[in-house]
Amino acid sequence: MAKLNTNSNAYTIIYASVLVIIVAFLLAFISSALKDTQEKNVALDTKKQILSALNIRDCADPEAEWSKVLGDQDQNAEILTADVNGEQKLVVKVKGAGLWGPIWGWVSINKDGETVYGTFFNHEGETAGLGARIKEQWFQESFQGKKIFADGNVVLSVFKAGKADPTLSADNYVDAVTGATLTSNGVHDMLRAGIAAKQADIEAFKNK
Amino acid sequence: MSLFSKENGEIFKGPLNLNNPVAVQVLGICSALAVTSQLMPAIVMGISVTAITAFANVIISLLRKTIPNRIRIIVQLVVVAALVTIVSNILKAYVYDVSVELSVYVGLIITNCILMGRLEAFAMQNSPWPSFLDGIANGLGYAFVLVVVGFVRELLGFGTILGFQIVPDCCYMENGGLYINNGMMTMPAMALILVACFIWVHRIVNEEKK
User: In the 3-class helix/strand/coil scheme, how is B64-101 assigned residue by residue?
Assistant: First the structure.
């Protein structure tokens, strides 16, 4: 067999095309083969996050806990109703912008329609050790028992320690994460806008 | 040449110690900083890089006589990118929590200098079996440093190893003890300092051998 000229243009182009086609088929095959398992993982992870917003953290069997507390509701819904040990809770999904990328979370509200029962926040790429700390339990738990509304407006806030709006009572805000002012402002705006958008649902839940 | 000849032994031993990719060649530092705040992600990252380096080396070595010289870097990149995408998909399917933790760094294995370095310097000139050994050894050399740094950072930063509490609860300040976790250890900067300490110790040990 004559030795191929591996430096010719034709050879180079054909080589590159064949290689890319083989790789493309391989990746498409793997991706579709694993898609179901991956989607199950994402769904389970979302359920765990929502359960955390209901102060059910690190439970051994999230699926069982989910069907006990939230029944067969879709974890991607914007509004969920939960039954935690006989008490009705409303879970509201909120979305916003952090410093580097999207942030999102869930706020669970007591039957009185104004007291925060629990929260969970997550982020895509906030700075580790600073903005990323909104994902930590101590920050999320600082919202427990806070009042969301004043005179019909959403006033639940995140303020830098000592820089709170003096017209609000201490029941209405939590301290921001030190060193993460912009991410904390993102959480603040996300809560204000996200809850205001669902105020009618919260009202309906309260009067149900 | 037998599979476990002396030459192959040398190929395998070099990257583990005297020619360690992180400690001696100072490659792959960026990911070593990012994924070592806890031991588990460090181990998974080490295994992933080892697997990808080994298989990329074998594939490039098999193709080495057919690869057009002018596009050889592109071919290497395509092979590495394909393998990284496969590994990333497998992690998402079977160890989802770890894949969230590693986030972008799995994808960034593509740009890990160790990989391209080994493909260009070794696999392009050698047959598949030595290339496989070279890939495994370089991956393990990298993984070893990651595991050491991850071990120290998790132990001092969180008081745990692989999530198990090592420092007894009663020693902590809030329970009346005298100990608090070193928050600095959870920051990427400490990884840099720990890698530097590792290199320091490594040089002292190897100095004595000469």
Answer: CCCCCHHHHHHHHHHHHHHHHHHHHHHHHHHCHHHHHH
Residue B63, in any domain of the structure: yes
Tokens 């050889």 correspond to B72
CA distance B90 to chain A (A): 7
Structure tokens at B193: 């300092």
Question: What's the DSSP call for residue A173?
Answer: E
In a domain, B142, yes or no: yes
Query: What pLDDT digit, counting tens, does each position of B54-65 carry?
Result: 999 999 999 999
DSSP-derived 3-state class of residue B167: coil
Q: Is residue B161 situated within a structural domain?
A: no
Host domain of residue B44 = 7-151
In-domain check, residue B157: no
What pTM did the predictor assign? 0.77
Chain A interface residues (partner B, CB cutoff 8 A): 4, 6-7, 11-12, 15-16, 19-20, 23, 26-27, 30-31, 34, 37-38, 41-42, 44-45, 125, 128-129
Phi, psi of B187 (to 5 degrees): -85, 145
ipTM over 0.90: no
